[in-house]
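Possible race condition, two jobs.
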Amino acid sequence: MGGSGAGWTALFTWVIGVGGEEGRMATRGYLVAGVTCGHCGSAVQEELGKIGGVIGVDVDLVAGGESDVRVTSDRAVAEEQVRAAVDEAGYTLVSASG
């Protein structure tokens, strides 16, 4: 995670209780445009946290660029669910980053 360029980078982590076995968890990364401050990151975390199965969200802020958002879940989460949550928060999902 992280970005280069003139912007600053910060990492915000939000984790809720883990249900299920640790071996069943999966983490997937996404690039999100427009997330430039802690308030923005919190909005994205809140909306993604509403998706069933999501147990944690990390936002690596890149001011002026695309921020890396990592979603940890205890089951599969469809990219369309992530896209809808990011859109609801007011930002744009650019791509899945792995």
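Job #2 (started ~2 s after job #1):
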Amino acid sequence: MTNLAFTALIKSKGYNKQRLADVCGLSKTQMSNRINGANDWRWPEVGKACAALGITLDEFATYYPVVDVIKTAKPAIRTKNECICEALDSLKKALTI
């Protein structure tokens, strides 16, 4: 289903699907799929679209809830034990010098 409100926003900012797709590094088909909800947005695309349209992430979220946006890379999160082991290894190296 086409997101008519977002399509209207694109047009009000002087863009069309092709021009916005070019800015975001997508094909027109990929952009249409994002707008229509057939494919989820990815964070880099969201950032580029917001910058081009002059809107904030909060404004973007009014058209597409955050749950509809896929993170492109999962940051490495160390466990508490990994942090402790790393600190102990560093301390051990410092004491043996």
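The helical segments are 4-12, 17-24, 28-36, 43-53, 57-63, 80-95.
Logs attached separately.
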